[in-house]
Amino acid sequence: MSDSQANGPEANGMLEQRRPFFYPDSSSDTEEYRRDTEERRKRLSKRNGPCIRGRMPPKNQSPSVPTPSTSTQEPPRNGQKNQLVDDRITLVVDNTRFVVDPAQFTAHPNTMLGRMFSSGIEFTHPNERGEYEVAEGISATVFRAILEYYRGGTIRCPPTVSVQELREACDYLLVPFDANTVRCQNLRGLLHELSNEGARRQFESFLERLILPLMVESAQRGDRECHVVVLLDDDAVDWDEQYPPQMGDEYSQTVLSTPLYRFFKYIENRDVAKQVMKERGLKKIRLGVEGYPTYKEKVRKRPGGRAEVIYNYVQRPFIHMSWEKEEAKSRHVDFQCFKSKSVTNLAEATADPVIELEPLRAREEEVPEPPPDAAAEDEAQ
């Protein structure tokens, strides 16, 4: 008895819905019938178990070889699951926990987190819960954005975070901050930070090539400060040796550099330059624009024969710095060099002043002699 006769007309209807009617004379129909039989056998094997008794294996398959439906994948053991969980670490940033894979950090060994978990040196120790407290002073929102760098190589600045805050966090974690790694909606803030970084590198080059040799020259003269005026490459300076311009007490030096002149045109670049020189240990730093005499225009004669020379002045940026250590003592007056006229004895201070009588008597006895003309007039009268 077949399966359709045993199960009744309902089973026959379901069987007709599952597979169409096949013609046994057609070879293609026979292959489709075999494939349909194989699919039914796979479904039954999943329900009843890996093996069905009373069924013969296909003709093209050996009885000793199990059918594909009987092959099952071995599930992962509990030890493997625990090992995957143990590989992940927990970072605590701003009272927020981040469960991450340390392999993401070791792929970027130049960053702070990469050095922390790739080298054998323990930069930080876990707490009693086995968690690592890192990035102190960085908010959880900023740290979540920086984690995207370890996953995809880019950082998207959140709308609620300023570009400057993101930049400071990247500098702290040693994550590169440039146009290739940061995506930001606020282009003005992003370009401002990129300009600060570019200005810093450019001024460090100017400082080493152009300004430092002038500072060394001033130091070799014994000076402890330097005043540098930045001129253009085509500026001509022609001073009259007989009538030089009045430059004041400061001894100024000049450097011909049009790129440096353009650099100091922006006030933001001056702030960056001032910060760089502070980091290099210089003091009394002043940056601005002043008039500088270039050549003599005319000479005027003042009453009395004194000549007055008029020079042509151009507005050029200047930079002033000092490396003097004891600048407070240099302007301090040492009163030990002067003889003190104050009275230190209290008895002498309370006593009456001594009047010298002899000099007074001598002055009274000295009567001035009248001039000869006056004596003659007296006689005539």
From TrEMBL:
Pfam families: BTB_3. SUPFAM superfamilies: POZ domain. Residues 31-41 have a biased composition (Basic and acidic residues). GO terms for biological process: positive regulation of phosphorylation. It is found in: Cytoplasm. Residues 87-190 form the BTB domain. SMART domains: BTB. Keywords: Cytoplasm. Residues 62-76 have a biased composition (Low complexity). It comes from the Eukaryota. Residues 1-85, 358-381 are annotated as: Disordered. GO terms for cellular component: cytoplasm. InterPro entries: BTB/POZ_dom, BTBD10/KCTD20, BTBD10/KCTD20_BTB/POZ, SKP1/BTB/POZ_sf. This is BTB/POZ domain-containing protein 10. It comes from Papilio machaon.
